[in-house]
Amino acid sequence: MNNKLNLLPIVFVLLITACSSESEPETQVAAEETEEALITRALEIHDRVLTFDSHADTPLRMIEPGFDMSQRHDPKETGSKVDYPRMKEGGLDAIFFAAFVAQDIRDDEGNSRAKKLGLQMLDAVIESTEKNSDIVGLALTPEDAYKLEDEGKRAIFLAIENGYPIGNDISNIELYYDKGVRYITLVHSTNNDLADSATDSKGPEHQGISKFGEKVVAEMNRLGIMVDVSHGSEEVFYDAIAVSKAPIIASHSNARAVTEHDRNMSDAMLKLMAKNGGVVQLTMLADYLRKAPENPERTAAIKEFRANLKPTSEMTDEERKAARAAYAELAKKFPAAPATVQHVVDHIDHIVKVAGINHVGIGCDFDGGGGIEGIFDASEVMNITIELVKRGYTEEQIEKIWSGNLMRVFREVQDIATEIQAASV
Ligand SMILES: [Zn+2]
Fold first, then answer.
1. Mean pLDDT, range 169-179, rounded to an integer
2. How many Å lie between the centroid of ligand 1 and the Cα of residue 355?
């Protein structure tokens, strides 16, 4: 830890048990752990456990010309949420960098463009880990992360967000696996050839996972790639549980009973996730964390801003900068009620209550919209641990939340792939 820690203010609670009875001469004053002692204890726990963020869209940044992951970026000025120095500051040991390809036209040309862009992002991550091998390493297995942690390095895992770059060619999945991809989010904000999205305004197209999507899941099972249902419709979740031979993950989703949102998971889904042995990774997206009071002016302004925006992948550097500045201006003009670390741990508390301590983790979605007050970027993730300690979570439980649960699923997915491959010989 260093002195750049940006800690949340913690209300200092001094518990005084004073005996008011006159018959008792002694006044007993018992002080609970002080704020300072609690933070110190929380930071020690944060340092000891492997901290693993299952979702960041940082590869989008990494393909920007001149973007250097070894340099610290000012999040307010650049909009960037993750780089290697800030991972170190926040005590973040491991991360899944997802190559995100926005859904576009579903024809041969669109598919091959998506594949090209996906590969460009995966290669950018690989190249960055090679260039910075003194501070990070590309990780392919859970064991790699622990080994890199021992060496004092950050573990960088690869994923793909949106199955679009698979196109209609199953063999692409092995190509991505060989690059290092260890989970694929089946679908994004609109339906694709694999599955229905939770948020497509046109409604469902396949009533869950398509026939082709089922083949994709089977191939992922065979190779040892985790099936990620975040962004998928509810039917996609139930289909994935039914079709996948291995437990599944939701790499960045929250609890619907706490915050009503199509991207969040109902209690029934959380219970089934527990039965499946999978894991739900909590995300730092304000709208999934709390219901903001109605603000029609802000909503209209954002809608107008988005309508006039072209896809980030098609923007020039200048256009990207201008878009960021325009959004920052808009957010300043129409501020939203903040989401905080308390909201995050409210969701964790709920999932633990419904699904148990073994089925919850953390996937911040930095550089993909994630980042809230107190957990604005990778340098502030220790505030989650502090809030967990405040609410009485033990080190063993915190270890499960920060990585143990995801690693259990990861290992199981790999073991099942080994079994499938052995059975087919
Ligand atoms: Zn996402």
1. 98
2. 22
